[in-house]
Specification:
The protein has 151 residues and is an alpha+beta fold. It contains five helices and ten strands. The longest helix is centred in the first third of the chain and has 12 residues. The two termini are 16 Å apart.
């Protein structure tokens, strides 16, 4: 896959701060997009990233999660499951569109527009070096960690 540079972006983040992509340049970065706080698949995925967080840090990698939920929702989700990484709020879908993760999906027999569960690994220069799209939550964080440990 050719390296693709991601445009800089800033989003509201948990902890009362904003998150801007390019100051992170000292580490590689996992950005995972998920549909909604406090849903079974998204909770499982967040917990798996949480449980492996120390291993990601040891590999020189930071993690952020992005969904369209509000910061208030993210703060509650983060506190409820003691997530050690920032959750970013993309209510206007700007970054979701930058990564092309908005899709038409079937939910309870209805067509809805939402985030396709996707993960991207960026190197220290902001290049996408690996991506997973339309994935299942179970076991995914371990798969991402295994990749990051090869960098």
């Amino acid at each position: 896959m050719p390296k693709q540079v991601v445009d800089d972006f800033t989003l509201p983040a948990t902890g009362g701060a904003g998150f801007t992509l390019y100051p992170i340049r000292s580490k590689s970065l996992v950005i995972y997009f998920y549909p909604k706080d406090n849903t079974p698949g998204c909770t499982s995925e967040a917990q798996q990233f949480r449980d492996l967080y120390a291993e990601f840090n040891k590999a020189g990698c930071e993690i952020v999660g992005i969904s369209r939920d509000s910061i208030k929702s993210h703060e509650n989700f983060k506190a409820k499951f003691t997530l050690p990484f920032a959750l970013l709020s993309d209510e206007n879908e700007a970054v979701c569109n930058l990564f092309g993760v908005m899709k038409q999906k079937m939910m309870y027999g209805k067509q809805v527009r939402g985030i396709e569960r996707s993960t991207f690994v960026l190197d220290k220069k902001g290049n996408i070096i690996k991506e997973w799209r339309g994935l299942k939550a179970d076991g995914h964080a371990q798969e991402v960690l295994t990749f990051v440990q090869t960098l």
